[in-house]
Amino acid sequence: MAFENLGEKLQNVFKKLRGKGKLSEGDVKEAMREVRLALLEADVNFRVVKEFVANVTEKAVGHAILEGINPGAQVIDLVHKEMIALMGSTQSQLTFSSKPPTVYMIVGLQGAGKTTSSGKLAGLLRKQGKRPLLVACDIYRPAAIKQLQIVGNTYNIPVFEMGEKESPVTIAEKSLEFASANSHDIVLIDTAGRLHIDEELMEELGQIRAKVRPQEILLVVDAMTGQDAVNVAKTFDEKLGLDGIIVTKLDSDTRGGAVLSVKKVTGKPVKYVGMGEKLDEMEPFHPDRMASRILGMGDVLSLVEKAQQAFDEKQAAELEKKFRENSLDLEDFLTQMQQIKKMGPMKDLISMIPGVNTAALAGAEIDEKAMVHMEAIIQSMTREERQNPAILNGSRKRRIAAGSGRTIQEVNRLLKQFEEMRKMLKGFTGGGMFKKNKVGKKGKLPFFS
Predict the structure, then answer these.
(1) 291/306 same-domain check
(2) Is the domain of 337 the same as that of 424?
(3) Is residue 132 part of a domain?
(4) Is the pLDDT of residue 362 over 60?
(5) Using one digit for the tens of pLDDT, what is the confidence trace for 417-446?
(6) How many domains are there within the chain?
(7) Could you give the CA distance from residue 221 to residue 258 in angstroms, rounded to a whole number?
(8) What's the CATH number where 81 sits?
């Protein structure tokens, strides 16, 4: 999980601060020494760390915080604000050309995830109502064109290619003619990479840039390479000029130093982060939300957005009505589980909830298969049994257990959990839980509506 180690260490530091009624200057400096060490271990650039710690220390010691109410919380708030500023303060969105097609050049070293990121970005833009076209300009890497075609098919995005004999510059130039003729308003050019930066690579990218005049040049870097990713970004920007950065494999990097360093070192914003293999696991980068996740403050906005994307509105309205009437059955329970699964791994979702101890989660085993087992049990029931679980006697339970490949004990456990949930919901109905504007838009709950 991204920032797992850093988050745990920082939350431990803040726990000590919260436990003190008063803070001395020595307390602050000791805490900042621990913060400094945690950031360095997360592979954050050492100059960035030095400036970050100096800024927080100066503000904490110099603004009468030590004499104020709840000084520990105020120091934490300073760290939070400084971390947001470090990563760019506000979300940096893609810009679009006033005259279509808008062209984006996707650049980076081999293995960083350019081709997959190109497909994901095209998919995200299509969700916004755009008509993207992917362009295969990597004619050197074996099967690179085929890989882009596979990615394009996955996200139902057309791919423009001219084989491996034409030059990448010609392919890029011809793709614009094709896009205009076929009403594509977005062109994403997947360029060639190398194992290292060299003059030949940069010259070719410069020629493509001169021909297609991209709206933005986006660099894809691998989070797991740490400071190397930051160095690559700096060099690409110096030689080519960047408009934004896509950081991939952040879900596999427990350190996260690249994301915390790259904006400060290069001046270029992170626009997207890859949190997994699926299309919806590449997210727009929000500095404030990421800072909150790192510091254990949760990320409710991202959680709600995931819920809105995953939940069918018609089903949500029907389920809300059933909640009000306390008439939820196992078919509804199954629907809820299937939609929650669309939101991503449970461990990532739980880490977005404010107040959850993410450090404690680090050693916890969250059994993702449990939900699969529950689905299998419910799907082994007849429609009548799902709608009226009260009829489930011993023989029916044995049949369901055999049909789902689970045990009778697991069937009983599921039924018990379902009944407990119904009792809990019954306690909510009639109170303020479902009143409009109390929970969310039109009174809907993020997970159950």
Answers:
(1) no
(2) yes
(3) yes
(4) no
(5) 888 777 766 655 444 434 443 334 433 333
(6) 3
(7) 9
(8) 1.20.120.140
| The pTM of the whole model exceeds 0.90 | no
Question: In this structure, are 236 and 200 located in the same domain?
Answer: yes
Token couple for 415: 């039924």
Reported as a single tens digit per residue, the pLDDT across 239-266 is 899 999 999 988 776 677 888 888 988 9
| Pairing mode of beta strands 270-274, 282-284 | antiparallel
Domain limits at 37? 4-86
